[in-house]
Design brief:
The termini are far apart. This protein has helices at residues 2-6, 8-25, 34-44, 54-66, 70-82, 89-105, 109-125, 130-143, 147-163, 167-188. The model has no long low-confidence stretch (mean pLDDT 87). It has 10 helices and no strands. It has 192 residues and is mainly alpha-helical. The longest helix has 22 residues, at 167-188. It is globular and about 55 Å long.
Amino acid sequence: IINAIKDKDIERAFETQLRMNDRYLRGETYSDMNNLIHTIKLRYEGSKIKNSNIWFYSILVQYYMENLEFDKAEELVDEILRNKSNIISIIVNEIYCDKLFLSIIKNNKKEAKDCYEKVKSYLKASKYMQDKIRILYSYELLVNEDIKKANILKKKFKKLNKDNPYKWQIKYEKNIINYVDDLYREKTNSII
């Protein structure tokens, strides 16, 4: 707590998080918050990654993913992972989950399998989180090519949508799931 009082990055992160949470509850997505995202980009892109500002980097990764700017998201993810020794382990797991997803959609199966092994137990422990179901769905569909498991995960994803109070997250995750389904259609000429 004393460090939080002294560290302006922590103070700004907390304040920004409160503002963004308020907007999430009103159904806004990251794209709806362009002014806030622009401020975060100006302040943090290119700065040293550490625990006090990692939240901002995570927001930018999600913002790029929401806008299907996967190359930009991957650049940030790779930068974060190069600095992972400065970051608490739960955040490193989250970033590896993002790396896993990005590897899946870029059809880099070897990297996807390597990332999956790093976060397999973390994914299992967070199996009721919508983004983790999306990642597992993508993995089964595009890496393992197991349509049966993918369909089970997609049903679970849809059920979580019904129970999710954050409408922005539903919109965000559906958009990315649709992108994954499009990749599958392009790859196989069939519909999931």
